[in-house]
Amino acid sequence: MKLNKEYLEEVLVALIPILGLPVSLYLMSGIDINSSKYIRRLLIVLPISLITTIVFSLELLKNYIIEVLAGILVSSVGIMVYNILKSENISLYVDEYSIIITMHLNLESLNFSKTDLNNLIIDIVKKAMRKIKNPYYREKLSILSTCGSSPRVALQEDKLIIRKRCGDSTLEIVIENNSQANIKFEIQY
């Protein structure tokens, strides 16, 4: 795992007894909760925080160790639910001609360092398919990732627009201010 400033902050905050785990989980809220990066960081932060909390509690709060651990568990679960709800920001609009699925993702959750736009589109379609349960929409989304047409890129002053069209389905990715990717799938019927 590559060491960077955010990773070191999360580990150092995890060393704080009692408050370390909830604060570390909050600091990790920018990472996609379904990614392996999040799980790896959680597996490092969790034991560090629990060990420091147990050592601190055994030394100073012997009578309240169960209450302390219960408080940590409740606050950590609350922050995890917040992260899940924040990452589930997908919406579905239906009008008389088409179905529009929109998503908003942080660029950190996308592997934007890949130079091949087709791999980026496949990653985005996989994220959308995890959240869409209807088999008709899933089939139309999977067509976008296997279609042979190449994506078209348009650059404007403050945003980058990537479009891909396959039959009656269209994918549009709008990246603004190098922080947020707004994704729109449009399926004609």
Q: Can you tell me the overall shape?
A: elongated
Q: Segments where pLDDT lies below 50 for 5+ residues?
A: none
CATH topology assignment of the largest domain: Double Stranded RNA Binding Domain
Radius of gyration from CA coordinates: 21 Å
Q: What CATH first level of the largest domain would be assigned?
A: Alpha Beta
Instruction: Give the helix proportion (percent range).
Output: 40-55%
Overall mean pLDDT score? Answer: 80
- What is the straight-line distance between the termini? 45 Å
Largest sheet entry: 6 strands, antiparallel
Describe this structure in words.
- By secondary structure, the chain is an alpha+beta fold.
- It has 2 domains: 83 residues; 99 residues, 2-Layer Sandwich (Double Stranded RNA Binding Domain).
- Helix content is 49%, strand content 23%.
- It contains 6 helices and 6 strands; from the N terminus they run H-H-H-H-E-E-H-H-E-E-E-E.
- A 6-stranded antiparallel β-sheet has the order 1-2-6-5-4-3, covered by helices on one side.
- Helix 1 packs parallel to helix 3 and helix 5 runs antiparallel to helix 6.
Summary tags:
single chain, 189 residues, Double Stranded RNA Binding Domain, six-stranded antiparallel beta sheet, 6 strands
Quick description:
It contains six helices and six strands, in the order H-H-H-H-E-E-H-H-E-E-E-E. By secondary structure, the protein is an alpha+beta fold.
How is the secondary structure organized here?
Blueprint: H1 5-14, H2 20-27, H3 36-60, H4 65-87, E1 90-94, E2 98-106, H5 117-131, H6 135-146, E3 152-155, E4 159-166, E5 169-176, E6 180-188
Antiparallel strand pairs: 1-2, 2-6, 3-4, 4-5, 5-6
Helix pairs in contact: 1-2, 1-3, 2-3, 2-4, 5-6
